[in-house]
C-alpha cells in the first residue's frame, strides 16, 4: 500500500481539482475460525488505511494523530464499525 501512496494521492489531487467524487471500497475476506466450515467475514482494511493515509498526508500528521482525529470525527465508526466494537 505504501508503495502506491504517491499515485493514490496524485489521483485524489486530480479528483479534487476537477471537483470529482472518490469512493473508497473495502472488500471482505472469509477467515476460518477454529475449523468451522463456514468461516466468518473480515474487513480488508484497505479503505481505512487509505483514508488514514490521506488525512495524515493532508494535515501532516503522524498515523496515531490522524487516527485520533478520525476517531474524534466519528468517521472510524462509519468506515469500520468493527474497529470501535
List its traits.
single chain; two-stranded antiparallel ribbon; 9% strand; 85 residues; 2 strands; 5 helices; mainly alpha
What is the N-to-C succession of helices and strands? HEEHHHH
Number of continuous helical runs: 5
Taking strands numbered 1, 2, ... along the chain, how are they ordered across the largest sheet? Answer: 1-2
| Total beta strand runs | 2
Helix proportion range? 40-55%
Q: Major sheet, described briefly?
A: 2 strands, antiparallel
Low-confidence stretches: none
Please tell me the overall pLDDT: 75
C-alpha Rg, in Å? 15 Å
Tell me the quaternary state: single chain
How would you classify the helix and strand content by structural class? mainly alpha
- Taking the alpha carbons of the first and last residues, their distance comes to 25 Å
Characterization of this structure:
It is a single chain. This protein is mostly helical. It is 53% helix and 9% strand. The chain has five helices and two strands. It has helices at 5-17, 46-58, 63-72, 75-79, 81-84; strands spanning 28-31, 40-43. Strands 1-2 form a two-stranded antiparallel ribbon. A hairpin with an 8-residue loop joins strand 1 and strand 2. Helix 2 packs across helix 3 (63-72). The longest helix has 13 residues, at 5-17. It is globular, with a radius of gyration of 15 Å. It starts with a helix and ends with a helix.
Care to give the gist of this entry?
With 85 residues, the chain is mainly α. It is 53% helix and 9% strand.
